[in-house]
Structures are given as structure tokens and as C-alpha cells.
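User: Show me a protein chain along with its predicted structure.
Assistant: Here is one chain, sequence first, then C-alpha cells.
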Amino acid sequence: MLIKTAIAFAVCLLILAALLILGYANMEKLLFPSPKGNANGNLKLKSGDALLDAFFAEGTPGKEVILYSHGNGETLETMRSFPEELARCGYSCLAYDYAGYGASTGKAGEKQAYSDIEAAYRFLTEEKKIPPSQIVVMGYSVGGGPSCYLAEKYPVRALVLLGTFASATKVYFPAGLPFDRFKNAERIRRINIPLMLVHGTGDRIVPYRNSQQIARNSASALTVFYTLPGGSHGDAVRFISQNPSLLTKFLESKLETSVRL
């Protein structure tokens, strides 16, 4: 009996080890399926060896500028209407395709995503001469990963996370796994700027508990969490499109303490 139990336990360990190895090898492919598409931007960004397709929508001069990182199944071709909507509300918006996405060259991955958003930030601060105190970093789903990275490493006005996960593996495993990526819930402990979260309780792609964990860990003195009862994954973005006044209200709160320089 003990031998059978030991064999069964060993088999379970082997299966677990195989799953861990498989997960480690394929995590970045799962995070970044890299859909292709036509060029839909109006500028190019250099990110390491990659050339990114990007789109800058002009809003009201002097108003906040949004640096937007989209979800992993999108390209500029499918989501360009969102930055255009933000611009109509007065917010200039820079959106870009990750390396390997749409018409962008290169290969997507966690480290590459950090390089991509840094390239977008450099464009805003160096070419457009936009002060960091006007830049609002906004990320949807996987886009919350590079957004949290930038908000920790560089001065920005505020951080907005839409349907973002606590970390890549915590989407399905609350405790996380060794080959984790984009540890947003841990990174948020070191980000002391205004934080806005939007998440639907009916999200079946990134469960609602992910944003709850990020909110619990937030180091910000101003954390605003909009819960969408029964809302799906995509409802987080639609919420911003349909309620721009709430974004304005958030950005006008605690104005003097909103910038980390």
C-alpha cells in the first residue's frame, strides 16, 4: 500500500514538474499571441531592434496626455477608436503596438514590453516635450504590466489600470508560480502616485480578485477603484469611453500630490 502511494505521489510530482516546464517555456507565447495587422499608426518608435507602429491622437493643448498600452489580443487596427475617443474628450493619447504586433517588427515578451513603453515615454517627453507631470499611464489587461513598470521607474502623473492582473500566473493560480511574469501586485507597493482601477466582477479572462489584490497592496494615498457589477473583461475599457468625466474627476483630485519627481 505504501509503495503504491509513493508511486502515485511520484507520478504527481512528475506531472507537476512537466506542467511547470511547459508553462515556463510557453508563458510569453500565451501572454503575447502577437496578432498581425496593417499599419494604422501615424509614427514609428524605435524600441531596441524593433520598430513599433504607434498612433498619437491630439487632444486639448495643456491637458493631460495618456500613454495607453492595449490588451494582448488587440492591435492598433482593432482598437484605434479608443485613443481617438480620448482625444475628443480633450486628452491627447499615444497608443502603440508591441513588438511583433500589427505592423511592428521584432518579437514580443516581458522585457521587450518594458522597452516598448520606454520608447513611447521617450517620444512624449523628448520629442513632444510633454512634462512628466502631464503623463497619465493607462494599461488594459496585459498592458497593465508595462504600465506598472513605467510608473515605478519613471516620473508620471497617475496610473490607470483596466482589467489588469495581479501577475501573469495569478490570473489562474492565486499564489502564483515560479515562472511568473508582470508581478503588478508586488510592484504596486512601490508606486506612490494616484491610482485608478476599473474591473468587472463578471470578468472571466482576468478574475476580479486580481484588481482587488492590486488595490490592497497600493502604496498610493489616492486609490480609486471602480467595480463594474457583472462587467466583462472588455467593459473596463468601455467604462472609460462612456464616463470620461470620472477620469477627469480622478485626475483633479489631490492635484498638488499627484506628481512624483
